[in-house]
What does this fold into?
Amino acid sequence: MSLVLGIESSCDETGVALWDKHQGLIAHRLYSQVKTHQRYGGVVPELASRDHIQRLPRLCQDALDEADCSAENLDAIAYTAGPGLIGALMVGASFACALAYTLKRPALPIHHMEAHLLAPLMENPELKPPFVALLVSGGHSLLVRVEAIGKYHILGQSLDDAVGEAFDKTARLLNLPYPGGPALAQLAEQGDPKRFEFPRPLLDRADCDMSFSGLKTHVRRVIETNPGESHAPDIAAGFQEAVVDVLVSKAQQALRKTELQDLVVSGGVGANRRLRTRLNQTLQQNGQRAFWPAPEYCTDNGAMIAYAGFVRLGDAPANGRPVIQSRARWPLSELKPPGST
It folds into this structure.
């Protein structure tokens, strides 16, 4: 088997892509629901689910047309089974399994965070485990020792808000438009990160756990003490620099603990330019390496699902009908190496 269709629908992006064993990524389609949810200041789950229903058939056909192939050429269909919004997950899973049943092809349920973790390997096939992965998104902040594909040990995680969630909440405090994280990062480029003092939570601890809710509270206090839009760029810059300091420090701690030299960074926050600059500088100084997906593959997308499906072709059942699987919560540590289930 060589051609895998990937379907991503865990939140508010509808992603479809085709991964070929010999050619790599041969088609990629993505529809973002930002405009749909912008008026509400965040994702409305029911609206997200309905939009996936409308978009998936057309996006799949567009991807097949881009690759100049038909559905009959597919060898497997991979889809995001979790974690994520359960309604949105069910839409993608139902569509994928219905297509698989019609074509008599296997359907592969993919873990969303494993797909993020594997995304840098799409463009860096020379990278092999073991390595450390920093997964930073709106829903997760994890440091993971990757012993092998499917063999993961959690080194540390956020004890409260995920880092992307902290970005979004801080952006709302600064009255920035949705989606808040990218808007805050853009505003921070105009500010002085040293003007206001911000804490660096848990940097005095030797473990790899993180905390970001206190930073959000500190932002509120700074805004109350220094009202006015003129202070917003400096507040945004100070907040971002504090977050980046924490992530860089904790990533370094994880590399020291594991005695590994390679760090994979993925998830929506992995597109943050300040984080990329600081991590690259720090790791290069220490003789270590950082691997990133292209910014367009940091956020949710079908390409990472198609690639993860290709990696997990060994999990395809030899016989039997596709079974719809969706899990709103799904610990990464529950996964097993491909072909072992």
